[in-house]
Fold:
Amino acid sequence: MPNKKSAERRVRTAERNRIYNRYWTTRCKNAVKKVLSAVEAKDEAEAGKSFDAAQSVIDKAVVKGVIHRNTAARRKKMMAKHLKTLV
Structure:
């Protein structure tokens, strides 16, 4: 337990940020999984649609500072590589 008032505030802030970051990381992971499952099912239309949505979610997470831009680029590149196998 924190002993100072400023430390108590930091604990509250850290918990709020943890929940916010967890929300966005989970959203990114679910979007990527949706793309990969559509590719695995060989559903080209659904894969393309979910790829666009996943890119949008990942880019928003970068803007919000949840994930690093290089991590986002790596994930988008991986999804594009899988999507290319359908064509």
